[in-house]
Amino acid sequence: xxxxKDREFVGxxxxxxxxxxxxxxxxxxxxxxxxxxxxxxxxxxIVKVDRFEVSRCSSMYKITDHPFFIRFISLTIID
Length: 79
Hints:
The chain is mainly β and 79 residues long. 10% of the residues lie in helices and 44% in strands. The longest helix is centred in the middle third of the chain and has 8 residues, at 31-38. InterPro entries: NA-bd_OB-fold. This is DUF223 domain-containing protein.
């Protein structure tokens, strides 16, 4: 939620834990795709995410130490 704009819903933020390299990666899906993925994203769940974009994380929105973040796109599949 954007607390600067009357708590406007802007999308879903997720944290991906990669146990192989002991790293946390920030993931995000914008409001336009949020309903499509909402039922697949439950707190504490283990999922497989396929077909996504990886981008450099802007310091303004950085919530992990990882330099990249995962962006869900229209082709993204969550299992």
